[in-house]
Write a structure and sequence with these properties.
Helix content is 3%, strand content 49%. It has 1 helix and 14 strands; from the N terminus they run βββββββββαβββββ. Strands 2-1-3-6 form a 4-stranded antiparallel beta sheet, with no helix packed on it. Strand 4 (42-48) and strand 5 (52-58) form a beta hairpin. Pfam families: Crystall.
Length: 173
């Protein structure tokens, strides 16, 4: 189980809404989100309803304003609890769409794809085990994308604005 609390105002003030699981549309619960408290679990919060738009990965802790979760604005419209995965993680990334080009398997975090593999582009991937976060820039910075177990034939299928991936991190307990 997880628990996340959204607050309309900064520093955990104003109207609040507590959530314990997935919610595809939070708009009826609050009009803006300026602070978040994660009591338990790992969460991905999304700028738009239906798990779309900018994504923000949040672990247990306090986020007194949207800058603390690297938000661009006070808009949070959906959220997803990321299931805990305690066994091994396996991910295969590809140089081309539709699983084309050279495959590269990852089982651990990678702070810089371009340094480790001489490429910063991931055009498709197959998540075999565990949940992963793709980051737009090296060292786990920039836009974030949750990739759950499954096949992603093109970067747009995980919500990517492009195929640029700077770093990859496992979501581990």
């Amino acid at each position: 189980m997880g628990k996340i609390i959204f607050y309309e105002d900064r520093s955990f003030l104003g109207r609040s809404y507590e959530c314990a699981g997935e919610c595809s549309d939070l708009h009826s619960h609050f009009s803006r989100c300026n602070s978040i408290r994660v009591d338990s679990g790992d969460w991905m919060v999304y700028e738009r309803p239906g798990y779309s738009g900018y994504q923000y990965f949040l672990k247990k802790g306090d986020y007194p304003d949207y800058h603390r979760w690297m938000g661009f604005n006070d808009c949070v419209r959906s959220c997803r609890l990321i299931p805990t995965h305690q066994s091994s993680h396996r991910l295969t990334i590809y140089e081309r769409p539709e699983f084309g080009g050279r495959p590269t398997e990852l089982t651990d975090d990678c702070a810089s794809l371009s340094e480790r593999f001489r490429s910063g582009d991931v055009h498709s991937c197959n998540v075999r085990d565990g949940n992963w976060i793709f980051y737009e820039h090296p060292n786990y910075r920039g836009r974030q994308y949750l990739v759950r177990p499954g096949e992603y034939r093109r970067s747009g299928e995980w919500g990517g604005a492009s195929s640029r991936v700077g770093s990859i991190r496992r979501v581990a307990a």
